[in-house]
Amino acid sequence: MSMSLSAIGQTVHSSYTTANAHSHNDYEQAHPFWSAWQNGFGSIEADIFLYDNKLIVAHDRQEMMAGRTLDSLYLNPLQQCILKNKGFVYPDTNRHLQLMLDIKSEAMVTLKGLIEKLNDYPALVSCSSLHIVISGNRPDPSLFTGFPAWIWFDGELKKEYTVEELKKIAMFSDDFARYSKWRGEGELSEEERQELQSMVNKVHREGKKIRFWNAPDTHHSWHTLIDLGVNYINTDHIFELSDFLKNYPGN
Predict the structure, then answer these.
(1) Angstrom distance (rounded) from CA 11 to CA 154
(2) Average pLDDT over residues 170-181
(3) N or C: which end of the chain has fewer CB within 10 A?
(4) Whether residue 11 has pLDDT greater than 60
(5) Please, what CATH class does the domain formed by 3-246 belong to?
(6) Distance CA 56, CA 99 (A)
(7) Where are the domains positioned within the chain?
(8) For residues 137, 196, 251 and 41, what is the CA-based torsion angle, rounded to 10 degrees?
(9) Which CA distances in Å does 125 have to 55, 56, 109, 121?
(10) DSSP characters over the chain
């Protein structure tokens, strides 16, 4: 495993920053990519379809809009930043960015199209501070090792992986509702807290990071997720989470 992804896999320190923030469905923001990037987010997520030989950014087929391509929303802006910062995503060369691409169309065909597209962006695939992670529709884990070194995968908590397959997994994600019905008011029940904590600890023992999607997205829930050691805080509220983390104790 490369040194850059080894760094990603470490357990989070007590001081959280926007490097621990994940912009969920980032393309629905008023300024896709740029709002999260300007706030130093560590992870940005976009849903993609392969349609008519184009990689379209959308949540479902009804949302597919002319001009909303992966190139225009993410690849071109990333290339602009990397060239400006002399090979790094951020001016701070210690900061990394994870671009999570959630595949909504058929896995293998879409991945083939994505790899062909990314080969047109050598500045991206050679960038040590950019990690391209595939979520959503994924090939069978037995095929992971056949993909380029710069393609990584989002692991599923309930699946078992071989040692070789784990080497291609950058992080683990799951639906918060599978473990808890808590919606951010009051406190987690002790039983739910223990189950969530066991999942977090299991992932950390593998040297990986963890994220829960569909988790409550409020100040109180962010505190709770941090207490659990969840590495990436999933949010639709970029500016609110950014302010929260910038004022978090220890920062």
Answers:
(1) 17
(2) 95
(3) C
(4) no
(5) alpha beta
(6) 15
(7) 3-246
(8) 10
(9) 17, 20, 20, 7
(10) --HHHHHHTSPPPSS--GGGEEETTGGGSSSTTHHHHHTT-SEEEEEEEEETTEEEE-SSGGG--TT-BHIIIIIHHHHHHHHHTTS-SSSSTT--EEEEEEE-S-HHHHHHHHHHHHTT-HHHHT-TTEEEEEEES---GGGGGGS-TTEEEEEETTS---HHHHTTEEEEEEEGGGT----SSS---HHHHHHHHHHHHHHHHTT-EEEEES---SHHHHHHHHHHT-SBEEES-HHHHHHHHHTSTT-
15 pLDDT exceeds 90?
Answer: no
Task: Read off the tokens for 158.
Answer: 């309930």
How far apart CA 142 and CA 69 sit, in angstroms, is 30
